[in-house]
Amino acid sequence: MKLRTVVLIPVVAGCFFLATAQVRADQLADVKTKGTLLCGVLDIFEPFGYTDTGSRAVVGYDVDICNAVAKRLGVKADIKPVSIEARIPQLQQGHMDLLAAGLAYSAQRAGQIDYSDAYYVSQNIVAARSSRGFTSIGDLAGKRISFVKGSISENYIKEQIPTATAIGFEDVSTAFTALMQGKVEGFSTSEETFHKLASRLGANASSYAIVQPAIGREVWGLGVRKGQKAMLQAVNGALQDMEASGESQAIFDKWLGAQTLYKMNRSFKAEPIK
Q1: In this protein, which residues make up the domain named Solute-binding protein family 3/N-terminal (predicted)?
Q2: Please, is 254 exposed, middle or buried when counting C-beta atoms within 10 Å of its C-beta (0-12, 13-18, 19+)?
Q3: Same domain for 38 and 166?
Q4: Residue 128 sits in which domain range?
């Protein structure tokens, strides 16, 4: 009887792990079978994902990316709002098939999930009063630069302008106000955030400008469950097709391009994250 017990335990355990591996290997097939791609996006992250006040639907750049990927997989995107804290656990636990949620690449996150090719690159910049005449980042040496506490901007300032004094504020509005009030000579944030803040100034928006070049960049990828090679390959194939067809450019132009308040140029392509 003891011998039978010893033999059965590894057999049962082997069957369990075999079944688990089979489930993991079949995510792409499961998505196609059910006909929907559960796509997690942030819903308080304009213009990437936010709730439209008219339709009450979640819309934005990331939503359009999800819809375009789903179309190429032959399914329909099911957009699911997710919080910053819960996005990776929700993917890992199988509650989401894909994340388009401002996932900047980091080695730590890459140990938890698989990243698709880049679908967006966020530049971290320093803005200043146009009247100061700063023509390059080097001109900000020894100057005071505001940033939001806890953001990546502090690291970028210290790395790229080591003699500058980085002054942290609790939120982006007060950090920008410090620049407007002359308490600092520069203000560091993402390019998207600066353009949004400047747009609120109306005719006075031209009083502020980005000092070139950018001091940092965050490369965003779509999040795929770890080990889902077929799913990752299909998502990357979709992104490459979107790039070749011009759809990725069209989505960028719709939400961030010259005709929007952001007035940004797309300086990146869908390519593997290095």
Answers
A1: 36-259
A2: middle
A3: no
A4: 123-217
Beta-carbon contacts of residue 30 (< 8 Å; ≥ 6 apart): none
Considering the domain architecture, whether residues 135 and 205 belong to the same structural domain is answered as yes
Both 210 and 243 in one domain: the answer is: no
- Confidence class for position 60, pLDDT limits 50, 70, 90: very high
Q: Residues 210-220: what's their mean pLDDT?
A: 97
| Domain CATH for 116 | 3.40.190.10
In a domain, 117, yes or no: yes
Are the C-beta atoms of 218 and 124 separated by less than 8 Å? yes
Q: pLDDT band at residue 24, thresholds of 50, 70 and 90?
A: low
Residue 222 CA to residue 234 CA, distance in Å, equals 12
144: its two tokens: 């005071």
Please write the tens of the pLDDT for every residue from 141-179. Answer: 999 999 999 999 999 999 999 999 999 999 999 999 999
Among candidates 151, 141, 124, which has minimal Cα distance to 214? 124
pLDDT in tens, 253-268: 999 999 999 999 999 9
Q: Which of 127, 122, 124 is nearest to 146 (CA)?
A: 127
Domain count, the chain: 2
The answer to whether position 19 is within a domain reads: no
Higher pLDDT, 160 or 2: 160
Exposure string over 148-161, b if 16+ CB within 10 A, otherwise e: beebbbbebbeebb
Beta strands of 130-248 (E only): which ranges?
144-148, 165-169, 186-190, 208-225
